[in-house]
Task: structure prediction
Amino acid sequence: MSVHHSENGSAQLSRRRFVQGSLLAAVLGGTALGTSACSTSTAAAGGGKGSVSFFSWDTQTIMKPVLDLFTQQTGTSVSFSYAPPVPQYVSTLQTRLQAHTGADVFILTAEDKQLVGGGFVKDLTGQKFLEPMNSANKEFMTVDGKVYGLSISSWAGGIMYNKELLAKVGADKLPDSWDGFLDLCRKLKDKGITPYYDAAHDGNFMALWGLLGGYFATQSSFPDADIFAGRTTFADTWTDPLVAYCKLYTEKLTPKAVLGLTGDQVVSEFANGRVAMFGAGTWNVPAVQKSAPNLSFQTEAIPGLTPGTSYWTGAASPGYAINAKAKNPEAALKFLEFLASPDAVKAYGKSSGAITTTSTYTPSFAASITNQALGARSGKIYLPVVAWPRHSNELSQELNTQMQQMIQGSVKPKDIPAALDKKLKQLDAK
Result:
């Protein structure tokens, strides 16, 4: 895979500030079917002959180059409507589909997977235009063995580090194991340098998600489906990596004060040289560069429990899906076929700043995000809330509460997975 550098790549990243999407959905709150929400629209949702209607959570500014290219190439116009992510888009989509006023094509999110079971989403299994999809994206769009959406991009997060501060303890990159990473943190602390922050206040435990992913990748399979099917438990599968992650706090390598810092404040602490490393995504790069234009930094994958098993936190982006009751089903299929094409992927990547992952187009990236981009395109990305088939909102809130209490010293790390098992059992019993 060849990856070229783009001089304007960093400038294209700012709209991905919501890129925690599925992660923050748990904080923002899920939405039940039937909830109403407002949206903006540039045309009626129904569409007409020779047109296809599209409901987006990307703004019209982002999508316009793509839509114009589609019309230019096919002669088919697009009736566009929009609602912002995450809760407002989710509730608006659900309301419209229930009222039979849904667009022909819409964005299928992790929070909307239940729409598949409700018969609202067309089965796309076997469509040739799905072939360029990255394996991680295809897995995200699959429900019960069938593919329901076209996902063309992903995001990846890892550990961003200040090269100058790491050099003070003789390091020029991250170690290749979690034990080595903890040793690096100890050396930094001994030098009077705060080693590492995750945005614990916001529930964004970036290094934990990647540590879990790397651990699961060395096992026979990722355990999420088995946990929710009752074949295994959080306690059986999460305990070792979670206890290892929590050494950051139990050994006071990350101070309790991190709970008082928002995600933006964590970025500010890093940019101002007050912490050596933090859990970062591509969306953090512009803020660091703006605040500290002369700072030399890099981002790498999260070291694994076993040497050489580093992994990225991340997730496939929500995909394009077709309304099972689309008014213009042929035009909808033509639209998705176009969206999977190299021309469309290139146009979307340029307008959105997203890391596109299809096999038929190799995007360009700024040097500052090349590692994350390669990580996203490799498919070696993991985010638990995306993998959970139900109760993601409630379980994420429970995990966040337990983790914050652990940082404060009132909960033992080994008890957190058992608390998740208890919460899942309670939720399933309702």
Q: What stands out?
A: The two ends are 48 Å apart (CA to CA). DSSP finds 18 helices and 16 strands in the chain. The longest helix spans residues 234-250.
